[in-house]
Fold:
Amino acid sequence: MDKRKRILESALKLFVEFGFHATPTSKIAKEAGIANGTLFYFFPTKDDLVIALYLDIKSQMMANAALEIENKTTLKEVLKDYYSASLNWAIKHKTKFRFIEQFTNSPYLNKIAEEEIQAHIQPIYKLLKQGIKNRVIQKLDIDMIFAMLSGHTFSINQYIITKDFSKNKQAKVIDDTFELLWKMLT
Amino acid sequence: MDKRKRILESALKLFVEFGFHATPTSKIAKEAGIANGTLFYFFPTKDDLVIALYLDIKSQMMANAALEIENKTTLKEVLKDYYSASLNWAIKHKTKFRFIEQFTNSPYLNKIAEEEIQAHIQPIYKLLKQGIKNRVIQKLDIDMIFAMLSGHTFSINQYIITKDFSKNKQAKVIDDTFELLWKMLT
DNA sequence: GTCTATACACCGATAGAC
DNA sequence: GTCTATCGGTGTATAGAC
Structure:
């Protein structure tokens, strides 16, 4: 039940394994256990499906990170929680992370409105700006700082995923790498 | 003349704009100014073309970075030259960089032998290992350090590309971000 | 809403002349 | 080596019954 959801789940799995175009809608329908035509009842075109999946996962990521920002005092604490939350989410939802990765580095990204992308990263921008103003983060171009933050997060995530660490070790790596990042930015 | 080269160039341009699968071989041939069948004389299948293009660009990247390693004294100097060389190459060859980006984050990557990938990154690994041994770089897992190095390089590159800086400003950003990276790793 | 059946466009790859 | 012509397979999307 909830066939829409089943379609999204099957599409996610197959897209990550074979890529967007190498995955026919017929296979997605089969994997979801529904008829071919039913897919087009929920998503008028294949592109609509791909984009809906992207927006769906992106909003899950945001919801996850937003929760963690509450009730923290220092900027370092807030940023660290944001960092851990992002990494832990990605570790827990590897396939979703891989999809975002693939989507972001494909021409599909151009089909998403710029504002849509901006909305997702705005909370961190605010945090960083505040940090610069309070002289705890280095006075550098905000986009540059953001680039370093996201680049770091992204690559550490890939590092953790490939290594298959224990939960404890994972937590330690997240701690250690955050300290390194913090050292660089302050 | 050299139709093989023309095919690779046209493929590069179209792949980056539309993606691998959304680019038919017929369009590549048309863009290259050759007949449809001629493409398959040089590349038996479309996959062969994609992979040949990847290997071609990768070897260009390696040749570029290798030149810069010679005749340097300290590790910091060597690493900085490697860093600058990589970034300057990517800035100069945006389309090629975008292709590598797209390819690396696609299921195509699985079609490349692991050794092939390893060969490309080995020189940096050697450098980093030496740095750890000599106690100039922090004693951390080498893969973790490599992840931070490449993640940093990658994201700073995207930052520079989106900004459209002057040559001078570009050089300054490269300098500054390397110092930050160095600060983090040592 | 969901299914089956199918239209029809398109693309990768081949055949064969030159 | 390079071209033209074309085939066979496949994939998106629709039509229409239930």
